[in-house]
């Protein structure tokens, strides 16, 4: 069965410890709750001054930028991203997403189901 939804109707999970992760909301648009067999699609909203933690894990990310100005940081350097840009974060690469603009920075992020934490 096809599942259609609206991202604004998905309850966000808030990530903010004031240090390693700041002003991040994650909405799981497609994942285990929709019985997705292989992948999860999430929408991240990073507020002004916000960032994801600098971290690594054994699965890849595919990212597509929707709004705002961001930066993808890794051990090999940083790259600015804007709406329409995409990125592949390979497995086991250290990475972080940072809002470098004044407004919100939003992106879609797809991972294998093994990488979805709810």
Descriptive keywords:
mainly beta; Jelly Rolls; globular
What does this protein structure show overall?
The protein has about 120 residues and is an all-beta fold. The chain has strands at about 15, 20-30, 40-50, 60-65, 70-75, 75-80, 85-90, 95-100, 105-110. The strands form two sheets. A six-stranded antiparallel β-sheet has the order 1-2-3-9-4-7, with no helix packed on it. A hairpin with an 8-residue loop joins strand 2 (about 20-30) and strand 3 (about 40-50). The protein is globular and about 40 Å long. The two termini are about 20 Å apart.
Question: Helix segment count?
Answer: 0
Report the span from N to C terminus.
Answer: 21 Å
Shape: globular
Elements, N to C (H/E): EEEEEEEEE
Number of strands: 9
Radius of gyration: 14 Å
- Label the structural class: mainly beta
- Global mean pLDDT: 96
- The name CATH uses for the topology is Jelly Rolls
For the largest beta sheet, what order do the strands appear in spatially?
1-2-3-9-4-7
Number of domains: 1
| Strand proportion | over 45%
